[in-house]
Design goal:
about 25% helix; elongated; alpha+beta; about 950 residues
Length: about 950
């Protein structure tokens, strides 16, 4: 168990706190209003009884900031006086050890420590009593009663307590003795309502105030009045005749200068943190009380079996748990050491092998399998810039070492090192740059110290050093750039500019003492005099390969340029044409007609990109070709055109200019319709490629037809197959996205599209029974509208919204005789069905069904007869096949003859068949135009072999024995 003040200080001594509030006076509290004043809780005990609220230096800085320049020696910022050693006969203050020429700041600081009274309370009291803190030239009389101690409102001051030191120490004793349980002041009860007067004039009355704490009670003992509403409504001015201002001014000044005067005090917050951390079940039992810590701005601490809790005004209450982090923390003085106060509780970090970390005002402690190490406040900037333990740097592997030149320090981490020198920021060095930096000798080598963060630059990284800069492309090696090379490199945009990343270190083995360093897109050459220029060895080699200044390229006509397009590369202009170079491709000249066509497509920045070879020419044939990233240019007497993408692949496979397609006659032409793609004209046809998809060649009469229908932008869309020839009639066919073209010398070129195409393919297409198409699809307006298309041996029709059906053979001949789809039959609604009784066929149309046999020919059965006919069994039934089409009888009826019956219908009545002997008897008497007229019912036969049927003119009975009679 730890006991004793010295042991405790070693465990929970305070840290240096970088807090602006404690270094310079705060401005007026924003929006401070009298309505915020709580008469029963003017200041918390924690803010009042605090022997470590401010350091001597902070007090001195505060006084200097408040007063500015002093006008006499009583001004507190410069005031000094000899002080005696004094011990009070009562109270809780310890002995004040006097000294000569002590400053006002030192006197205030020593009284704060001796009496455990916040220096902020003393400063506020000096201001609210005499305005001393902001007075540039206080009088001797003002100094004699500095704290207003011994100066009752109703009498003169007690001379016993004259003088600045006497006032501060005596007031400090009294303010901490008031309401002390061991003291004699008991008239104001904490935790109860108390009558507090509003003014020395008793007639002004009093207010019933609930006193919340000892500090507020002490203020009322010292100044026994509470402000009235008038005083609070004019917070920075005067109220009325019953207003008192002492405690109002104390609250206002404290809040303006130091922030909130109330709130939980340190011990309360430590207790709350203890509970939040799980109390005894987690931190164990307390092994000390709450003790003040004066170092580094001051605060409180309490030790527990499994950890320690620290509180300061700037950081709040936080826990340092027992374990590797606390062990390290204690080894370096705990809160009293360089690490200072905790600013966050310990937290686990899973990345890079895992561990835990905790932040403090003076640094951070990290514990991992590598051990526990601190990252100081100076090192944290560079480390945190790379995401700390969760980033590329990983966990610290050792404590910082400060043995570098110029007092520099470094600290090793899993992924690299952090470097800094006094007065500069820290920077992390890692990855390929770190490897190269260490190989060069680190900070003691030619690079010097890092002076920037390692930053992403394009596809790699870069970092500045005191003598140069280092760059690494991706995970590749890093190279150092310095001197005139770096100056020119920077002028060209650095790693993201025209030269790209360095690819090797600088070397100085060129003729004439020149140095060079290669980059992705060129090299920098520096003369002995330090003049740098950009050059490309690859372009110069290509220039020499083409004959140099005496060759086809001639003299240079511009400087070396970098182009970022299409992956980036270099270009050098010559009179005869440029030379281009791209990493991975090489350097090649582009000249003559190919150059003109290439430039017309935006050159290296266009769709063809960078050249992949020199031009290949056949001088005898007058042709040249040159390959580029995005395609190939072909030059001939027909012109110079580029071919690219799928068209180029198919063109090359066909043999190129000497193959079936011939030379290109146009460039690539974009087509946005039908899903988009490209087309290009050649001497023997045109090539098309949908995106995505292969290219197909369309030529001859098929192409003529294709063009007539709008080509790739028209109804057919892009070709989906090459042309197929050798069809009947020396014909050809080619498929497209939305149909096909068929051609023969006999039929010409015709297209078949949509549902017609599917039906045609199902029937065998051009090699099937229908033969070649004779027309395209034609619109037919009558009978609701639709389309029809003629083939050599069939005609195909579809009504609007309906499926297509073919009409063939004798039925087609008959159909045509009735005006086809425009006639009474209308559009077919089924395919032909053959193999019926008597070798017959039938096909349904909108206006009826056509039946055909060799014996009867083709006849139509109208819809009103068809139901009865079908019920009788159709061609295989009792009626047999129709032998006539529908006939008009008189003006009111119709009739149709079948092989075995004759059917009649009068007006809208039913259809009735007349058969056998009754039909013969009926015909003998004139049929429907005779005396019997139309049948009005079907025949019925009895068991006596007598059949009868009702007609308009009577009932006919018939038997084979007796013949027919009219009843």
């Amino acid at each position: 168990m730890m006991t004793g003040k010295k042991t405790w200080a070693a465990l929970i001594a305070a840290a240096a706190v970088i807090v602006a509030l404690l270094l310079a006076p705060a401005g007026p509290a924003t929006g401070l209003a009298g309505s915020q004043f709580n008469a029963g809780n003017i200041i918390s005990d924690g803010n009042f009884y605090n022997g470590a609220a401010m350091s001597e230096g902070e007090i001195q800085n505060f006084l200097q900031a408040r007063v500015g320049s002093c006008a006499n020696s009583n001004c507190l910022a410069i005031h000094r006086e000899d002080t005696p050693t004094r011990t009070w006969g009562f109270g809780t203050c310890s002995t004040y050890v006097g000294a000569s020429a002590e400053s006002a700041a030192r006197i205030i600081f020593k009284v704060q420590q001796a009496c455990n009274l916040s220096a902020k309370v003393i400063l506020v009291t000096l201001e609210k009593e005499q305005g001393l803190v902001t007075d540039r030239a206080p009088s001797d009389g003002t100094m004699r009663k500095a704290m207003g101690y011994g100066c009752p409102d109703t009498s003169v001051c007690d001379s016993t307590y004259y003088g600045f030191f006497n006032q501060v120490f005596a007031a400090g004793r009294q303010l901490t003795w008031y309401s002390n349980p061991g003291g004699s002041f008991t008239s104001i009860r904490v935790g109860q309502y108390n009558a507090i007067r509003l003014n020395p004039d008793a007639s002004c009355g009093s207010a019933n105030v609930w006193i919340a704490n000892r500090a507020t009670a002490a203020l009322y003992y010292y100044t026994p009045y509470t402000p009235n509403a008038a005083a609070l409504s004019n917070l920075y001015g005067t109220g009325d005749s019953c207003s008192a201002y002492g405690n109002r001014n104390f609250w206002r000044i404290y809040n303006d200068w130091f922030g909130a005067s109330v709130g939980p005090d340190g011990p309360t917050l430590i207790a709350a943190e203890y509970a939040a951390q799980g109390g005894a079940a987690s931190l164990g039992v307390a092994v000390s009380g709450v003790l003040p810590i004066s170092e580094n701005g001051g605060g409180l601490g309490q030790a527990f079996a499994n950890g320690s809790i620290y509180w300061s005004a700037s950081t709040g209450a936080l826990t340092v748990r027992a374990g590797a982090i606390r062990d390290y923390y204690f080894r370096f003085g705990g809160a009293g050491g360089s690490l200072g106060w905790p600013t966050y509780n310990q937290s686990p970090i899973a990345a890079n092998g895992g561990g835990s970390a905790q932040s403090f005002t003076g640094g951070s402690i990290y514990a991992s399998p590598a051990g526990a190490f601190a990252v100081s406040a100076a090192a944290r900037r560079g480390y945190f810039t790379q995401s700390g333990a969760e980033g590329v740097m990983g966990w610290p592997k050792a404590d910082q070492v400060c043995d570098l030149a110029g007092g520099g320090c470094s600290q090793a981490f899993q992924g690299g090192n952090v470097y800094w020198t006094p007065g500069t920021d820290s920077y992390a060095v890692f990855g390929p740059i770190s490897a190269a930096f260490m190989a060069s000798g680190g900070t003691g080598g030619p690079w010097g110290q890092p002076v920037s963060d390692l930053v992403v630059a394009g596809s790699g990284s870069g970092q500045a050093y005191s003598n140069g800069s280092a760059y690494a492309n991706g995970s590749g090696p890093a190279f150092y750039v310095s001197g005139p090379v770096r100056d020119l490199y920077f002028a060209r945009g650095g790693a993201t500019g025209s030269l790209g990343f360095p690819t090797a270190s600088q070397r100085c083995d060129l003729p004439n003492g020149e140095c060079t360093q290669p980059f992705q897109y060129g090299a920098v050459i520096v003369t002995k005099a330090g003049v740098a220029r950009v050059a490309s060895p690859e372009i110069e080699a290509a220039y020499a390969r083409n004959g140099g200044a005496g060759g086809r390229l001639g003299q240079r006509s511009g400087e070396l340029l970098y182009y970022s397009a299409n992956g980036g590369g270099l270009a050098q202009a010559y009179v005869g044409g440029p030379v281009y170079w791209k990493q991975g491709l090489g350097a090649f000249a582009v000249t003559s007609k190919i150059k003109d066509a290439y430039f017309a497509t935006a050159g290296a920045a266009g769709p063809f990109g960078w050249p992949k070879q020199d031009a290949q020419c056949n001088n005898a044939a007058g042709t040249c070709t040159q390959a580029f990233e995005g395609g190939t240019f072909f030059s001939s007497d027909s012109g110079t055109f580029g071919v690219m993408g799928a068209v180029l692949a198919a063109y090359t496979a066909s043999g190129g200019p000497s193959g079936a397609w011939g030379a290109p006659l146009s460039g690539s032409i974009g087509v946005s319709e039908n899903g988009g793609g490209q087309g290009q004209a050649f001497a023997q046809g045109s090539a098309y490629a949908a995106t995505p998809g292969p290219a197909r060649f369309v030529s001859g009469a098929v192409r003529d037809t294709y063009f007539a229908y709008g080509g790739a932008a028209g109804v057919l869309g892009f070709p989906t197959a090459d042309a197929q020839c050798g069809l009947p009639g020396n014909g050809c066919a080619q498929s497209f996205q939305n149909g096909s073209i068929y051609w023969s010398s006999a039929t010409g070129g015709q297209i078949v599209t949509g549902a017609f195409a599917a039906k045609y393919f199902a029937a065998g297409g051009a090699t099937g029974a229908w033969g070649m198409p004779l027309t395209g699809a034609q619109f037919i307006a009558p009978n609701g509208g639709g389309f029809g298309q003629a083939f050599q041996s069939a005609s195909l029709y579809s009504a609007t919204g309906g499926a297509p059906f073919a009409v063939t053979g004798a039925i087609r001949d008959y159909y045509f005789s009735t005006s086809g789809a425009a006639g009474a039959l209308g559009f077919p609604v089924s395919d032909v069905e053959c193999g019926l009784a008597g070798g017959s066929c039938r096909q349904a149309f909108q206006g009826g069904t056509v039946f055909w046999s060799a014996a009867t020919g083709a006849q139509t059965v109208a819809s009103e007869y068809l139901t009865k006919y079908t019920a009788s069994g159709g061609p295989a039934g009792t009626w047999g096949l129709p032998t006539t089409s529908l006939l008009a009888v008189n003006v009111s009826g119709t009739a149709q003859a079948f092989q075995s019956v004759s059917a009649y219908r009068l007006g809208t009545s039913g259809v009735f068949a007349v058969a056998g002997g009754i039909r013969d008897f009926y015909f003998a008497r004139g049929g429907a135009t005779g005396v019997l007229g139309y049948p009005t019912g079907d025949a019925a036969c009895g068991s006596n072999a007598v059949c009868s049927q009702q007609f308009q003119g009577g009932r006919v009975s018939y038997s084979s024995a007796a013949g027919g009679t009219i009843g």
